[in-house]
Amino acid sequence: MTYDKNSKKIVDIIQNFARKHSLWILAYGTGCGAIEVPPTMTSRYDGERFGLRGAATPRQADVLLITGYLATKTLKRVIRTYEQMQSPKYVIGFGSCTINGGMYWDSYNTIKALDRYLPVDVYINGCMPRPESVISGFIKLQQLISEGKANGAEKYQKNLEWYRENQKKVIHNWKMPDYNW
Amino acid sequence: MAFDIKGVLAPFSALKQGTKPPHTVRYPKEKKETAARYRGLHFNDLEECIGCGTCATICQNAAIDMIHVDGFETNSGDSGLRPRVDNGRCCWCALCVDVCPTGSLNLTKDYVYVSEDPDSFLWMPGVDNPEGKENLSFQSAEGKPLLEYERIPMHELEGTERVKSFAEVLLGYNEEEARKEAARCVGCSICTDICPVHMHIPEYINAIANGDDEAAVKIIYDNNPLGETCGKVCTRRCETVCAIGHRGEPIAIRWLKGYATSTVNNADLIEKIVNPEILPPNGHSVGIIGAGPSGLTAAYYLSLRGFNVTIYESKSHAGGMIMYGIPKYRLPLDSIDKQVEYMEKMGVKIKYNTKVGKDITLEEMKQHHEAILIGIGFEVPYELGLVGENEEGSIQAVNFLRNINSDRHVEIGDKVVVIGGGNVAIDAARVSRRLGADVTILYRRRVEDMPADWEEIEGAEDEGVHIHPQAIPLEIILDENKKVKALKYANAEMIPDPEGGRPRPKIIEGDEHIIEVTSVIGAIGQSADYNFIPEDIKNQIEIKRGRIIVNEDQQTNVPWLFASGDIANRRADAISAIADGYRAVKGIEKFILKSENK
Amino acid sequence: MREKETTIYLGPQHPGITGNMMVKLKVAGDTIVKAETHVGYLHRAFEKLMEQRTWTQSFPIVCRICVPEPDPNEENLARAIEEIEGREVPERAKYIRVMVLELARLATYGLWMGGQSGSMGLYTMPQWTIGDRDYILDLFEELTGGRVYHMYIWAGGVRRDLPEGFTDRVLKTLDYLENRLPDYDNLLFNNALFQKRAQGVGIIPKDKAIEWGVVGPPLRGSGIKHDVRIDEPYEVYDKLNFIVPTSDGCDVWSRALVRRQEYEQSISIIRQVIEKMPKGDYYNKIPNPLTWQVPPGEAYVKTESARGEFGYYVVSDGSIKPRRVHVRGPAYVHGVSLLEKILVGANIADVSFIMNSLGTCPPEIER
Amino acid sequence: MHIQDCTENTCVDQIQKIFHTAEVEIQRKKRVKVKLRLDLVPLFLSYARDYLNFKHLAHISCVDWIEENEFELIFMLWSYEASLMIMVKTRVNREKPEFITLSHLWPQAETYEREIHEMYGINFKGNERLGEFILEDWEGVPPMRRDFDTIKYSKENFYQRPGREDAQDVRETISKHSGEEVPDFAKEFSIRRIEE
Amino acid sequence: MDINWLKVLGIIITPIIAFIVGVAYGGIVRNITARVQNRFGPPVVQNFWDIIKLYSKKTTVSHGWMHHLAPVFAITASVTTLYFIPVLRDSKLFANLSFSGDLIFLLYIMVFGSLGMALGVGQSGNPNAAIGVSRGLSMMVGYEIPFVLALVAIMIQFHTTSLNDLLAVQDKFTNWIIFQSPIAFIAAILAFLGMMGYAPFDVVIAPAEIASGPPSEFGGKYLGLMQTSRSIFTFAKLVLFTDIFLGGAGDFGTLIVKTFLLYMIPVLTGIVNPRFRTEQAIRFFWKWPTVFGVIAILAVVMKG
Predict the structure, then answer these.
(1) What domains sit in chain C, N to C, each tagged with a CATH number?
(2) Among C255, D4, E207, E220, which residue's CB has the most CB atoms within a 10 Å radius?
(3) Is the CB of C124 less than 8 angstroms away from the CB of B14?
(4) ipTM of this model?
(5) Which pTM value belongs to this model?
(6) What are the pLDDT digits (tens) for C104-113?
């Protein structure tokens, strides 16, 4: 390993290496793509080979999978969940719906372009993406992490106002039942 | 509660699974081959695709856009557009594949695409994955086509039945059949480009499919006042490019037009339905020579635009070649009368039995009218150039048909040979059959080279007409009364043209035959009679190969003189004549209004 | 003495929730006093969207209504349209449909076994069953071109004929699944701990079951022998031999037993189907999908899905688009009103356990 | 009356005997359609449940017949004994849509009513849980009504990703090339994609 | 004061070894589990990456100072526990701080971590965590009883409360306490199942029920600390049981073999079993293990 002072510190390299090999996925089935997550994580495709693992609460999770469409009602919860996650944190958009609305392009209840509301690091093509695609998505995310490019969380911090403005256009009322997680 | 020792120990037997090798597919190290039908990313064969946009129409996600791709230009049979799939919309249901009329759009086995850029999910099948052709999986050819490739059959008289009378051969669609046939259309509109008139084909077909025949009639009359005629005798080039025609039988566009227009059975009804907007008279006057399709079309639209239009027709009925050239079993005469009656209601004035050059000169006309349109058509037949051609028993097809349509008796005997391979030849042959003769057609080239419609050829064969291709007439043999007795002809072989043109027939030396005939009907083409045009004008306009050269407004080199129909285009069919007439309207309007503004 | 009541929100982000919904619980100690389900997190307005789409365009949409088991949706819509239109379906297509439906049932039960075990911490079971379910998905992929969303059954029959040698591979997969059953039994159904957890939990009383609108395995788990496949046989179920298992326990355990037996029944049904499948046409073609008008009429059709009666109420006004498609998912009643009832008095540890035993499927509740 | 062998015909007879104004017809095997006046429906439903043994409420549905200014409510009852379904259909005025709750007969009716109330705006008197159910903070026309335009709403409220503006219409491209002028009355009859 | 450098060195490296072995065990367990589940599983070093990642995360949550202290309590408890267990027999380096009453002291100190957690978690206000803690405490009450009974039986039998003395008793294979006092071992090993927190006794962190229980509110570095503490604690418990029942170990090879085999008991049980509900688990501990514990004491008393 060459140590280049100008580019990255060796600590960063180790950190990024650990980060990319230990991606804990928040157990939150936000959309129908969640059906391909169990096959990815179970014996046939075994996502654990890549250090993927489920995390029960947002505090412990690194990756938020937006598995397809987001109803506005869910978007509100997802934003809150995302903000509860500890950075560095990553968002993966599953399938068509997160990119341009997918088959719900004319629905009155789902958002169309996820990157307006949350910073997305990787999009996976498909409806639904099959496990191989999902794994490819994670490999891409790992690659971005080791290159230091998966900085969605920083982007969100920096452009928080822009994101908030977009979020408020869709979510009219921020009042939420008091979830104590 | 008893202690369930078995229930406690049984689960531990699961541990023996640990000794088995895992069944994990170690992606990406090892890849599982996707199924032969897997629905992955799209691939489009750009050459096969015609850009009909049916895929975009059926896509319930509005995921497919039609995009202009360099190298593919809009022309007849191809819109020049190619589909682009928004993978941010697509759900890979493959409806677009099953509906693709050409079968160019298919899905491949590739499915992995991962990106951090949400704008990179626009997928141009075939352009983005040219290698996809080797990787096809879900293909439309495999299943049953989603579209209907089989035409609703048209009822027609049996061949043996037909020759007994001049009754119309095609019985036409009934309502149910028409709706069914119209429902096959995918509404791509590629046909409109090749149609000389550019009729609004997908719209009127869909109107028929929706059960709105009156709307269909209104749409047809928008740029074709002879819709009913076209519905029966059009050469329907539209059907040659029909998207459905790539893998099935094209939509019966002509018959549907015929169905829609025949639902209105008198001129009053047409007026009520079409109800066109008529501009108030603008004080300008236009003269038209010849009440053929182009003249009638021009007259109709000019009068709708407020012009004072007079047609000078040498015969007693309007219609020109469609009146006198097309036999009744194809186009009943009352159908033309009905359409002409409607046009006269709309303000078109027709002076019958007025031959320009004889009853009135062109100069006289010019004094009454600001612009003149010549639509005289080709009425003078070419001569066969054979010995004995002008004797009894040798007839020209045009004259023959005109006489028949004028209810004059023509004696042809019981053994007729028709020379030529065009529609006129076939018409003459089929009419001769109806007169009871045994008919043979002699044609220089092969059957597939015949310029006549295949349907006409088939119809003729059904009716018992013998077609003798690759036969070149040499001589008409006369009997002692100078009456046609027999025809001498030679068989020919096709030799390829060294310059790359179509093969030419060459007489096989010595292979000569003689058939006995009672009549010989020549149908090898016609030309126009320009004698009514004064010399000074004739010198100014340019006539090439018997046709007057015009610009895109049908204007000749003499600004006030316009020409349309067979004398101005090479296609020599009714629909091109109508298109000429329609263009001439615009040209004349432009000419007159321009000179007015000056 | 009354214990202090606390409110717990289970979901929408919660590992124990199937899908994406929320159960608001009032808890005294470990016991639930009041339960309130909140749904709508997955509402995509399918029924509205279908009113915007043509009949053929509706098919890719409906399979998304229930993610784990999409086929009953396609079958229902297809059959509803066929009923309104009076369209005949070729016999072979009917057999293929039954095969697809039963394969889907197997896949769903595989998922259910995983979910049911996962909800009580037996993580080996989902690894097995969901991994084995993948072989069924492979079959689907081969047959339909898609793993999860098949877009295969549509009005007039099925979309493609069986590929060459497909039935052999189905039989092979069935053999494999059947050979796995002893393993499943040892790990789950014979497991003393599972029996202990499941017995006496989530009781649906026999006398209330019908009144509450319970359908499917939960109904049969309450000892009432009703199954749409028997009550109103559709496709070719009347030509097949199978039994409808019931169990009298009214609890999670008896529902599990019912499903376990149905798993075997499904395998046997598919074998019969393959044996009896006639040759011939598989699709009675619909007209041009762009202009296809279904005559005015209405139909209510239902299917026995893995979770129970799956009904479609379809109204046509004679146009190219449906007037109304109303989906009656079994989870609609199970996941909302029934869950609220039977959670009362349960232990908080059993919420996810009971939800799984009812087969709650949020995307089908709110559609 | 408990009818074990209740068939379509006996069912129709039985209903017509008691409800003279009901239009009863056999739609097909195992389906009996009953059209009723609105005020008779609760009575009929409890009669069907208690006397005809239609114990299973499969479904409550609603159809918006905006042309007739009415909502149609459809109740599907299933008898497990007779394997028979009754479809009870009734019409509600669209201006002030009101009905009474059935949750006393079938507890799960409450859920169906909540949804219909939210999606169509029909008020079910006596149902205490009407209100927000599936939607959240919804304002304006209940979305399942025919006069609610979901495409328009979606366009106005949600950001659509740009980049597809270069799409061209096949019809326009061809008519531009050929010089065809399509009149407006013809355009109505074009088979186009669903309104983008 | 005379500083025993060897002891200081031992104090420094014992937790490090414990950490490495504990984490490595975690990785191996994940692999074994994976094999039973028909898959390959993560790399063996996976747990190291997990912990490094957790430490490298930014932590922005706070629910008061007790919240910060909870992981500290946990790690203190596990390290302290470790210090009072002789890791290797007759080793000066790893003798650590064992003293004559250490067995009794260990019983207390092992509870300390959980109590600390309880305090910290109570601050977070997360009901899942609160329920998790109350479950943890109830569970502890459950398994401590048979464990204490078993230990008491042994203490009575060998008249000592010192681990070193117990080690000295087990000088040869046949003298291992597992053979000398099998009933006490059964009671203790059943309690051990509960102590290790694998199924069927994993109610504390039951994900499907209460998210992940007590650590629900902890992420990043806190979770990293907790994982560290858990690894060390696991190793400590394994060494403790090896010392008490399996005759300890003279060298690291033996230690690894013995502890690993011991570890497999809860692990394999956990792989194939679902979890009990809390009250079922407690009822279980108070039934069979407790009975065995009492029998063990009775046997000793009657013999003595």
Answers:
(1) 70-323 (1.10.645.10)
(2) C255
(3) yes
(4) 0.84
(5) 0.87
(6) 999 999 888 8
